[in-house]
Design brief:
mainly beta, outer membrane lipoprotein receptor (LolB), chain A, 7% helix, globular
Length: 199
């Protein structure tokens, strides 16, 4: 059976449309202050800063005993505990209890592009996503800054919204473990098979 040229063009375009995915990592250095609007920590402030050249994200949560750095290039997360002057390093993909890099969407996640909105004075595009039983919506700028996000899994849901966005070069020293802090061993449940916890 012969198909018309317009029909063939439409079929050729379908895979590209189905694979459309948002830019979810900022393309330039930026610091964002969020307000947690739902879920755990509701009403608290959350600060995130991206050091794009080194693919690092620093997270400071109000009320937390320290801060953390997600290193996408090394696929690890550093948890810095100020009072103990200690650092815990968590490897990525260590099984059910391990770390998954939250700034990298799962390969199987499905995205649907929606309209646009303005948050913290910046325009953003709405994206709905599905990943298994996880559902949510996020509003992203054209250069990958998340301005609002909500969703979760089952009864575990949460939401954040940006209140301040500052584009500026970030200090690399803020994305490293402070000198002189001791290393803490991994909790047993996070040690990959065949890998001994550091002493």
């Amino acid at each position: 059976m012969r198909r018309s040229l317009p029909a063939l063009l439409l079929l050729a375009a379908l895979p590209a449309a189905a694979q459309e995915r948002p830019v979810m990592v900022p393309t330039r250095d930026v610091a964002v202050t969020y307000r947690v609007t739902a879920g755990q920590g509701q009403g608290h402030e959350l600060r995130m800063a991206w050091l794009v050249a080194e693919r690092k994200l620093r997270v400071d949560a109000e009320g937390a005993p320290g801060w953390s750095v997600i290193d996408q290039a090394a696929r690890r997360m550093l948890v810095v505990m100020e009072q103990q002057r200690a650092v815990l390093e968590l490897p990525a993909n260590t099984g059910p209890g391990g770390l998954s890099i939250p700034t990298e969407p799962p390969a199987g996640a499905r995205f649907t592009k929606g309209g646009s909105d303005t948050v913290a004075g910046l325009r953003c595009t709405l994206w709905r996503y599905e990943d298994g039983d996880k559902r949510g919506e996020t509003c992203l700028t054209a250069d990958g800054v998340m301005l609002r996000s909500s969703g979760g899994q089952g009864s575990r849901t949460g939401a954040v919204e940006a209140t301040k966005v500052v584009y500026a070069p970030q200090d690399p020293a803020r994305f490293q473990a402070p000198p002189g802090y001791r290393s803490m061993p991994l909790p047993p449940g996070l040690v990959p098979p065949g890998l001994a916890a550091p002493r």
